[in-house]
Design the sequence.
């Protein structure tokens, strides 16, 4: 009998031990998140070539500042900052004891070296953004001062994204060519492995300054998921979170998945080149602004998700100017009258609508809307490829009327510069009024905490919208489908963020 | 043996293939007239509707009638495939014939050029050509035509080579016949069956390439419908319209199948051997 009791006791201990092991394993695996998203064009913030990369680059790098949910700059690696009296220098105070994932200290000198690399490295794509910074000095291990070429209170915004992502000097000094595929930063995750065009694996960085808010232990980033099968991928568990279009929301919900619609900085717009006839006539350009039914575009191409807007910012953001709410409300009769006043009878005006291959439906819709006001539009599809759009629209400036969009920038001044500035990538006309440039300069000279800041900024937006031949169409919220075991994603205008996101065990809900 | 329509029609697969291809050709010519609606007319009150009495194949994401678009798309898809075949036929057959007659320098040069073409992938080359020459189906299919030309070159050369050295051609030359006469009278009839078989198979493969390119959005001039373009759009809306890809996909599959069926029949009735003798192969490829 005693042998039986001993055997039973041993079995009980074994069962409890195994159960404990299973529980531990379940706990570890439950905090693994599989995310379907585009891999960055480069893991080096200095050579990354698209704005969209911030979503993935920010996994491994922390920036000096960080945008909050509303897009306002707040503490990041720097816990505070102060400007000098005339706004020509800003000193950031770093958190004490910061380290990179390679174990080297992240101090003021590391920040200095990292920012200067962005200014000086031959193939740096951050040179323009960092042009406002003339020099960087490390005052002591936790104080770094940025000396500016002119008063510019936008620097904390500017440094909240790729521009302010700090790379380990030990890593880029040793081999700068390795950073695009083996990044070393101080972000929420540590880089573990990377297969180009396929996947990247990251593990939680316990030394991240905000590590307490990061629950995910392991993040697997998978690229190249076909849009038509992305929902099936999440449903099957191959992915936990992925981006979908508004048209797929219904399907995702029907599959029992959760959907997060998160407002973002992305705004679709038409790049109008006023240097190409017949768009040299301002009356024609203005007529086109009234001829496009923005709500119909949202309804047909994105399942009604998003808001009509006439400015390059979403509602709720500090730059959003309510006075522009009905600026160019759809009015085909008015558009027709304006074209007639400009001397164009129905059918006598022709133009080419340029579009990339993924937005073809939008072009076809716009073509019919233009037809309704008597404009003959021909659609030109730009073949897929990383440089074809640049050659056709941005650099080649061959497009009269290009269906485009901005993913936004951390600094609203930077975004206005890109969209409306004389050298702005999306301003294919390359013209800007002196009034707009003066207003933009005033924004730079206005501290972010000045009560006048929103008014000054919104005034610049209004001048830009009224001046520019280009015009906005609608916002494009970030739509994520997620497995119910993943908790809701936080709503940040600027990018995907993972603070506070938890992953429950398979089969259970977060 | 020269291919005759009556001989082809006596074969069951040949008859079915020819009948289907004639139907498709008729669709390409008269399709737009048969279409119940304007294939370009959008209707935002009838987006993504399923098949009904009003719209037999339903409507697409912009409310356009799918049947009308399918009929209208036949012409563009077939013309593009034909363009590739004609370009390949001219660029392959002419040098293939001439390589037998114009001496070793021309022969060596054309063989190396054809070898180079064979190494290029169809889709990538077509995409590169559209990036260089502009995004149009004409440009894309010109590229495809160039790349299918080696097939015509090789079969033409392989068929012409033994004829060129035959005794009756020698005899014709000795009696004073011109090179053009010899080509037209003695060589071409021997080459024609092989070229006919290659034309049929190339038409099928070109149609697949056209559909692939238009599926990827290359070469399309919206809102012109193409089978590949319709297939791509329908796949984006599988949830509300799960049957939408069937019609364009089936049309592509059946047309390609008919081309291959015709090629098989032509091969059988003309006696073109799928395998030329080793000796001929070696000489033709030399």
Sequence:
């Amino acid at each position: 009998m005693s042998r039986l009791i001993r055997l039973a006791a041993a079995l009980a201990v074994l069962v409890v031990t195994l159960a404990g092991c299973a529980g531990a394993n379940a706990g570890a695996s439950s905090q693994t998140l599989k995310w379907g998203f585009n891999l960055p064009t480069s893991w080096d913030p200095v050579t990354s070539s698209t704005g969209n990369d911030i979503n993935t680059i920010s996994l491994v790098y922390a920036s000096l500042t960080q945008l909050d949910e509303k897009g306002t700059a707040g503490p990041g690696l720097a816990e505070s900052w102060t400007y000098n009296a005339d706004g020509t220098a800003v000193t950031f105070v770093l958190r004490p004891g910061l380290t990179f994932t390679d174990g080297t200290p992240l101090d003021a000198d590391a920040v200095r070296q990292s920012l200067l690399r962005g200014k000086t490295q031959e193939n740096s794509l951050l040179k323009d953004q960092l042009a406002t910074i003339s020099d960087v000095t490390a005052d002591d291990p936790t104080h770094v001062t940025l000396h500016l070429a002119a008063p510019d209170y936008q620097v904390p915004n500017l440094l909240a994204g790729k521009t302010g992502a700090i790379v380990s000097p030990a890593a880029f000094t040793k081999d700068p060519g390795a950073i695009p595929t083996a990044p070393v930063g101080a972000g929420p995750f540590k880089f573990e492995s990377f297969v180009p065009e396929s996947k990247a694996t990251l593990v939680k960085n316990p030394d991240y300054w905000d590590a307490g808010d990061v629950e995910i232990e392991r993040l697997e980033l998978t690229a190249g998921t076909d849009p038509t099968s992305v929902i099936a991928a999440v449903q099957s568990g191959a992915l936990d979170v992925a981006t979908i279009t508004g048209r797929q929301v219904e399907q995702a919900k029907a599959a029992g998945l959760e959907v997060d619609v998160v407002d973002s900085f992305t705004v679709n717009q038409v790049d109008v080149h006023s240097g190409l006839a017949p768009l040299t006539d301002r009356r024609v350009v203005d007529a086109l602004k009234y001829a496009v039914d923005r709500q119909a575009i949202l309804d047909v191409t994105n399942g009604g998700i998003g808001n009509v807007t006439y400015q390059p910012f979403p509602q709720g953001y500090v730059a959003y100017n309510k006075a522009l709410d009905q600026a160019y409300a759809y009015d085909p009769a008015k558009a027709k009258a304006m074209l007639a006043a400009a001397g164009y009878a129905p059918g006598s005006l022709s133009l080419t609508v340029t579009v990339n291959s993924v937005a073809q439906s939008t072009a076809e819709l716009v073509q019919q809307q233009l037809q309704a006001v008597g404009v003959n539009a021909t659609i030109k599809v730009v073949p897929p490829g990383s440089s074809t759009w640049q050659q056709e629209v941005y650099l080649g400036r061959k497009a009269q009327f290009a269906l485009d969009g901005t993913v936004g920038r951390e600094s609203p001044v930077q975004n206005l510069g890109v969209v409306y500035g004389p050298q702005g990538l999306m301003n294919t006309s390359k013209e800007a009024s002196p009034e707009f440039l003066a207003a933009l300069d005033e924004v730079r000279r206005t501290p972010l905490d000045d009560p006048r800041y929103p008014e000054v900024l919104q005034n610049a937006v209004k001048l830009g919208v009224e001046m520019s031949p280009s015009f906005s169409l609608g916002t494009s919220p970030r739509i994520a489908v997620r497995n119910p075991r993943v908790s809701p994603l936080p709503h940040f205008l600027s990018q995907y963020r993972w603070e506070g996101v938890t992953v429950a065990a398979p089969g259970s809900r977060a | 043996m020269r291919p005759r329509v009556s001989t082809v029609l006596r074969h069951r697969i040949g008859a079915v293939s020819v009948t289907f291809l004639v139907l498709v050709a008729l669709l390409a010519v008269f399709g737009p007239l048969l279409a119940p609606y304007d294939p370009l007319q959008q209707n935002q009150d009838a987006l993504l509707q399923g098949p009904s009495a009003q719209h037999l194949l339903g409507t697409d994401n912009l409310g356009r009638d799918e049947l009308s678009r399918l009929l209208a798309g036949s012409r563009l898809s077939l013309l593009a495939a034909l363009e590739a075949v004609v370009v390949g036929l001219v660029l392959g057959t002419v040098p293939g014939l001439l390589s037998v007659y114009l001496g070793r320098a021309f022969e060596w040069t054309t063989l190396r050029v054809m070898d180079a073409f064979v190494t290029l992938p169809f889709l990538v080359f077509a995409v590169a050509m559209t990036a260089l020459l502009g995004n149009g189906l004409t440009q894309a299919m010109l590229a495809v035509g160039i790349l299918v030309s080696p097939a015509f070159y090789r079969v033409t050369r392989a068929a012409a080579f033994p004829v060129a050295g035959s005794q009756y051609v020698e005899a014709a030359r000795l009696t004073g016949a011109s090179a053009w006469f010899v080509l037209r009278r003695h060589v071409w009839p021997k080459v024609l069956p092989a070229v006919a078989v290659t034309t049929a198979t190339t038409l099928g493969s070109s149609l697949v390439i056209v559909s692939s390119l238009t599926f990827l959005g290359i070469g399309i001039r919206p809102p012109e419908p193409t089978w590949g373009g319709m297939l791509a759009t329908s796949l984006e809306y599988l949830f509300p319209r799960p049957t939408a890809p069937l019609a364009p996909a089936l049309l592509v599959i059946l047309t390609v199948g008919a081309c291959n069926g015709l090629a098989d029949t032509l091969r059988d009735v003309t006696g073109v051997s799928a395998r030329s003798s080793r000796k001929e192969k070696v000489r033709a490829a030399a």
